[in-house]
Amino acid sequence: MGFFSDYRATRRDERELGEGVWRRAHDRFKRGLDRYHQILESVSDPELRAMAVPVANELADLLPRVRAVCAEAHFRAPSQTQDIPHSTDGYVSDVHRQLSRAGNSMAQTAEALTMARFSARGTAPSAVAAPGDDDASPVRSPLADPAPIQRRAAVVAQYVLAAEDLMAARSVRRGQY
Description:
CATH topology: Four Helix Bundle (Hemerythrin (Met), subunit A)
Oligomer: single chain
Shape: globular
Distance between the termini: 41 Å
CATH architecture: Up-down Bundle
Radius of gyration: 20 Å
Largest sheet: none
Strand content: under 5%
CATH class: Mainly Alpha
Structural class: mainly alpha
Helix content: 55-70%
Low-confidence stretches: 123-130, 136-143
């Protein structure tokens, strides 16, 4: 049963996103989101988890928006290769650039969560107790600060919004691609 649902999902993806740059941009974003959630599952620090879960929800809410931009871009400028399709004023390249940046920033957000997770565990170099300390409780590293994760997530949202804005600005002049 799972085979057929996977097959249908793949066919739907091929129809909506193609097999070229739009599919690749969507899949890059999705992989970064999946990675963020995988890392989140291994976070044991309650404070870091409490901060990271709402960020995960915000990032997950961006996936349908990225898919919509990629599907619309594929409709306007189909791509079956790794070459970015041509457009009269280069807006398709700009849309792809914003989607690529969103995918890369998503991966950096997952990386920031990984670093915060290790820092929260006390495994960062600054968490090592100084010689002679009887109270050798690990000190939180500055990497455990959740601000980098939240900033990266905000950057991801900005790139997705920029891609949506580029597509919306062009939809007014629908006949000109």
